[in-house]
Design brief:
The complex is a heterodimer of chains A (527) and B (335). With 527 residues, chain A is of the alpha+beta class. Chain A is built from 19 helices and 19 strands. Helix content of chain A is 32%, strand content 20%. In chain A, the strands form 5 sheets. In chain A, strands 11, 12, 13, 14, 15, 16 and 17 form a 7-stranded mixed sheet that branches. In chain A, strands 1-10-9-8 form a 4-stranded mixed sheet, with helices on one face. Chain A has a 4-stranded antiparallel sheet with strand order 4-5-7-6. Chain A is globular and about 75 Å long. The two termini of chain A are 30 Å apart. Chain B has 335 residues and is mostly helical. Chain B is globular and about 85 Å long. Classes of the chains: A alpha+beta (527), B mainly alpha (335). At the A-B interface, helix 1, helix 5, helix 10, helix 16 and strand 16 of A face helix 3, helix 4, helix 6, helix 8 and helix 12 of B.
Chain lengths: 527, 335
């Protein structure tokens, strides 16, 4: 490592401007929790680990939620949907560092290792680095995957306990990154198994060089990458937590790209000729979930009337300061299966009031829960709750705003007998509509991630059927129908999808805003 | 003198134990379950929750947890971060040199400017200098750190381009960390320009972090000097015809230093508190930001370990201040 460090130092110091031209500096918003993506859940961690350093059997095509081949050249599902056979790519090289030089190419052993350490409690790596395998377990993989078999060096078969179509998208998620089994063995033998997380070895477009917490992460181009090598020779993450400072650094030329600008700075950035501002709807939704088990919110017409009383455009202007888009469906428009034919409930306080009266609801008092934290899908929940309070007052509904510490909020809002409607939201994990519709609105999610406590049989039938089908066209149709039922039943008021802004220097070419939220620098060049 | 030092050291032990208890209790009385915060919007099954409770040791009685923590601390083990899964001790020592370097520079800046400013103001009592200096000190003391930092960045880094916006050194320079102190490491690296870059990166954070202590020291020096300048022995010295510089510098300042050193000692706490904001704004990789992030994530081992280490440092500095009193004023150590 040291030799490599010194060599890189000399190269950078000697070639000066040339080296800089070949370096892409990204002002990231925080430190990664570590470099083994399966151990963690934060997007900041995935930006620094799974995207530059690793690959997965399947990948999300950058800029879309389409799943494309990665380390697997192909995947085939059995007719009953219970077996998935992956044909692996040959000739893929792992990175090396001062303690490890791979003696073989990537093969089936690496796939088995990468998943079994998460699945098998008795695996030697199961407890290393406090492994809690949050995503693997959170996505229900331990119960879904019955076994993983090595058919031969370049063929792996996953057997499932039940047919589940989103499994394919799960294989492209960050926790499914493929690590080197050979490196793991070497580190276990050396008595330093935690190096898998601190000195990562992968097959990705960039190899890890050095990390200083809260300061900088350095990567070098992987010249042996199995696709064309990355366009830049050096990738640097300059960790800069404050958004205003990131903006100043971008202006001063100290970095080329920055994420998460302050909404207040967006106009100035758009007006700046040296800055190219890219934007895309985020893969998220912010909503107000009624408790559909409590009267009068068990009546769909009451919920619909309240939805009609909310002025969503005002919320976009005030709370999102323009960096949001009104949501009409529970899934974002960038996701396949989005039903654009649905029309949103029009903002009409008079009609809403009449509808409430027709349902015999008068002098209604309710609680609206406002989250204590900022989230992309809701940058200021307190302000949003105040706007909703004012809107509801116009239709004769009295609102009391309540809030709790974030952990308490998450915990109490799950209760079946919760009093009041909850402001919350969701950011997608894998680009599959199941990840929104089943997780947030399925019957199994009640008293957990289904904050509306909603369980509606016609809707449930559709999403279960879609989960089990491997025919994409059929799934699309089922999800479109499910959204129609959702709109009629109105368990939530869908409020907004955020818009993701990525300001970058004009010198940057080839960057694509990724709908899944990751920041990916393969294929990006600097003039 | 040695006995005096031992007495002061003896007071260290109960304070240390008290701090372990307070740091342990502090994070636990805050509402918010770390496991639920970790799971986020997704939530987790009851079974998984119980598994995590056992894994993190929360199923044990609180007293047992405290005892385990205390035994760990006495063996030099502060536990592992829930988030990064790394030992708290390692994380602290990886980040602390950055905080220490910045705090020392800020302190040197504050003392180097604050002491002379206070003396000048006292000697020119009621004149233009005095009023100008003390008004500036009041402004400096009242200024929100966050705003002050952004103002300096926008003017000096953004508009004038004189100083870098943030970080510890230009990203062009790349060498392994030896001491953790960038000024020293950049010299050791032998790379031309590295030391200059490290110094340039220190300028704005030093000014921002040093501003409040500078104001406090200047005001404290002024009032201590004024008190001493009114003493009989100063009048005697003047009557003997001693040069004013000798009176002010030797006789007055030395006696005025006792309260000033107290303030400097107490400023260490202020510096560490100020470091939290300064480090966040200047992307300075120190312990301030690390602690704040940990509180939001309810990362118990980091919060209690970090608090304990900071408290120990403040206690050590105050011990040093107590010893310095003895050196400056022999009357104190004889008491």
């Amino acid at each position: 490592m040291k030799l490599k460090l010194l060599a890189a130092t000399a190269a950078i110091a000697l070639s000066g401007a040339a080296a800089q031209a070949n370096t892409l500096v990204y002002c990231s918003e925080g430190s990664p929790e570590g470099f083994d993506p399966a151990l963690f859940t934060a997007g900041t961690t995935f930006d620094a680990s799974s995207h530059p350093i690793y690959n997965r059997l399947l990948e999300f095509e950058t800029g879309t939620t389409n799943v494309i081949p990665g380390l697997a050249e192909s995947v085939e599902a059995s007719d009953d949907g219970l077996e998935y056979t992956f044909k692996l790519r040959q000739g893929v090289k792992f990175h090396s560092n001062d303690e490890f030089t791979p003696t073989r190419d990537f093969n089936a052993d690496d796939v088995i290792f990468s998943f079994m350490r998460q699945k098998d409690d008795s695996h030697p790596y199961n407890q290393v680095s406090g492994g809690t395998w949050e995503y693997f377990k959170g996505m229900g993989m331990p119960d879904l995957v019955e076994s993983i078999e090595k058919v031969d060096d370049y063929t792996v078969k996953f057997k499932l306990t039940k047919p589940e179509a989103p499994f394919v998208a799960n294989m492209a998620m960050d926790f499914a990154s493929i690590l080197s089994a050979e490196y793991a063995d070497a580190m276990m033998e050396a008595g330093t198994p935690e190096k898998l997380n601190t000195a990562p070895i992968g097959t990705g477009p960039f190899s890890f060089l050095a990390y200083q917490k809260d300061a900088v992460i350095r990567y070098a181009q992987n010249a042996d990458y199995w696709k064309a090598p990355a366009d830049v020779e050096n990738l640097i993450f300059a960790i800069t937590p404050d958004a205003s400072v990131r903006y100043q650094k971008l202006k001063a030329g100290e970095c080329h790209i920055m994420p998460y600008p302050n909404p207040a700075d967006i106009q100035a950035m758009k007006d700046d000729g040296d800055i190219n501002m890219m934007e895309q709807e985020g893969l998220n939704v912010g909503y107000l979930a009624y408790n559909t088990t409590m009267a009068p919110f068990d009546n769909p017409n009451v919920r619909k009337a309240l939805n009609m009383a909310i002025d969503k455009n005002a919320i976009i202007d005030v709370v999102f300061q323009g960096s949001g888009q009104v949501a009409k469906n529970p899934i974002p428009p960038t996701m396949w299966g989005y039903n654009d034919a649905i029309t949103d409930d029009a903002y009409d306080p008079e009609a809403a009031k009449a509808m409430l009266e027709a349902e015999g609801v008068s002098d209604l008092s309710m609680k609206v829960w406002a989250m204590p934290v900022q989230r992309p899908y809701n940058p200021n929940a307190r302000r949003m709750a105040e706007l909703i309070q004012a809107d509801f007052a116009k239709v004769g509904v009295d609102v009391e705003i309540v809030s709790y510490e974030w952990g308490e909020y998450l915990s109490r809002s799950k209760d079946l007998d919760r009093d009041g409607a909850v402001l919350l939201g969701w950011t997608g994990d894998n680009g599959d509509p199941d990840n929104f519709l089943a997780v947030l609105l399925g019957c199994d999610g009640r008293e957990a991630s289904n904050r509306a406590q909603w369980c509606h049989e016609p809707f449930e039938d559709l999403i279960l059927k879609a989960k089990q089908s491997t025919d994409q066209a059929e799934r699309t149709k089922l999800y479109e129908d499910a959204q129609v039922i959702f709109k009629e039943q109105a368990p939530w008021a869908t409020i907004a999808h955020s818009v993701v802004y990525m300001p970058m220097s004009n010198k940057v070419q080839g960057y694509k805003v990724h709908p899944l939220g990751g920041h990916i620098f393969y294929g990006v060049s600097v003039e | 003198m040695f006995g005096y030092f031992l007495t002061r050291l003896g007071m260290f032990v109960p304070t240390f134990l008290g701090v372990t208890l307070i740091s342990f209790m502090f994070i636990r009385v805050l509402p918010g379950d770390p496991i639920i915060v970790m799971a986020g919007e997704r939530g987790m099954t009851e079974e998984r929750y119980q598994e995590m409770v056992e894994k993190l040791g929360f199923d044990k009685p609180v007293l047992q947890q405290y005892w385990d923590y205390l035994v760990g601390v006495l063996h030099g083990d502060l536990g592992e971060s829930f988030v990064t899964k790394k030992p708290v001790w390692d994380e602290f020592f990886a980040l602390f040199p950055a905080t220490l370097e910045l705090s020392l520079c800020a302190m040197i800046f504050a003392v180097a400017l604050g002491l002379p400013a206070g003396v000048i103001a006292a000697v020119n009592r009621g004149k233009f200098f005095d009023r100008a200096l003390m008004s500036s000190a009041l402004v400096g003391y009242s200024m929100p750190i966050f705003w002050w930092a952004l103002l300096l960045i926008i003017v000096f880094s953004g508009n004038l381009g004189w100083t870098p916006v943030s970080g510890r050194i230009d990203l062009l320079y790349y060498f392994p960390s030896v001491t953790g102190f960038m000024l020293i490491d950049s010299l050791l690296s032998g790379q031309p320009g590295a030391f200059g870059s490290a110094v340039r990166h220190l300028i704005l954070p030093t000014i921002v972090l040093g501003t409040i202590p500078l104001a406090v020291i200047a005001r404290q020096t002024r009032s201590a000097m004024l008190e001493v300048l009114g003493e009989d022995y100063i009048r005697t010295a003047r009557a003997k015809g001693l040069a004013p510089a000798r009176i002010n510098g030797l006789h007055a300042l030395r006696n005025a230093l006792i309260p000033v050193i107290t303030v400097i000692g107490l400023s260490v706490g202020t510096l560490l508190a100020g470091a939290i904001l300064t480090e966040t704004i200047f992307s300075w990789p120190g312990i301030g930001k690390w602690m704040v992030d940990s509180i939001f994530r309810r990362d118990y081992p980091v919060v209690q370990g970090g608090l304990l280490m900071i408290a120990v440092i403040v206690m050590l500095v105050n011990l040093l201040v107590d010893v310095l009193y003895g050196v400056i004023n022999p009357k104190i150590r004889r008491r």
